[in-house]
Design goal:
71 residues, mainly alpha, Serine Threonine Protein Phosphatase 5, Tetratricopeptide repeat, 86% helix
Length: 71
């Protein structure tokens, strides 16, 4: 149960980071936060939400022509 709590804390932290980067207009770091959020969601067994988060990161990577990040 302790590990599950840590994963939820991680999800909360990445969600806050994403929101802050969105508010600041920093799309590149927002994309990184989406990716990190996807990792945490996957670890929590929330595959559908993880796929959505990875999709948002992919959109931003394409926007910046970040082909390494897109891969």
């Amino acid at each position: 149960m302790g590990d599950a709590g840590r994963v939820e804390e991680t999800i909360d932290a990445h969600t806050r980071a994403r929101d802050l980067f969105q508010a600041a207009g920093d799309r590149h770091r927002e994309g990184m936060a989406w990716n990190n959020l996807g990792v945490a969601l996957r670890q929590a067994g929330r595959a559908g939400e993880a796929i959505e988060a990875y999709g948002k990161d992919l959109e931003i990577c394409r926007e910046f022509e970040d082909w390494y990040g897109t891969g």
